[in-house]
Specification:
Blueprint (H helix, E strand, L loop, with lengths): L8 H11 L3 H4 L1 H13 L9 E5 L5 H9 L4 E6 L2 H10 L7 E4 L12 E7 L8 H11 E10 L9
Parallel strand pairs: 1-2, 1-4, 2-3, 4-5
Helix pairs in contact: 3-4
């Protein structure tokens, strides 16, 4: 018997690729949650050299993270090449970031290579959130920070 909640990664990638050009007009909730999560960084004393925007989508958080941490290398990672293409269009000469197409459960980054992992509303798109957390722990340097949002049991009950 197959798992009815299993997400086919290839189909998911194609769906996000198709949605990428108009994604931001529909992603109102994602934007509000992203701004809340970015605001929470105000109380954190951290000067990261490398920041990973895990599930970067169209790059709004990547740009905000680059603005906040000017000296840091920001890596926008997403499963969808089309989302990363949209993110590339948002870059400016002063707000450049790397773009990496990969799965959150198999990060193509070295161990202890990242100071901050920022992830906004990505975990519900992952078949194995524990694998994602293991990967985040693997890539985080000692003293690094993982900050993320996800939906809870009462999300959107209204």
């Amino acid at each position: 018997m197959t798992d009815p909640f299993h997400l086919d990664r290839a189909r998911l990638r194609r769906a996000f690729d198709r949605a990428a050009p108009g994604y931001d007009t529909a992603a109102v909730l994602q934007g509000r949650v992203r701004e809340e999560l970015l605001g929470r960084l105000d109380v954190v004393r951290l000067e990261p050299a490398v920041v990973l925007d895990l599930g970067a989508g169209t790059g709004h958080a990547s740009i905000a993270l680059k603005r906040r941490y000017r000296a840091a290398q920001v890596v926008a990672l997403d499963l969808s090449p089309a989302m990363l293409a949209e993110a590339a269009r948002r870059q400016t000469l002063l707000r450049r970031f790397r773009r990496v197409c990969a799965d959150a459960a198999a990060l193509p980054l070295g161990a202890a290579s990242v100071d901050l992992v920022f992830s906004n509303l990505v975990l519900h798109w992952c078949n194995d959130p524990d694998a994602v957390f293991r990967e985040c722990r693997r890539v985080l340097r000692p003293g690094g920070l993982l900050t993320f949002t996800t939906f809870g049991p009462d999300t959107l009950v209204e």
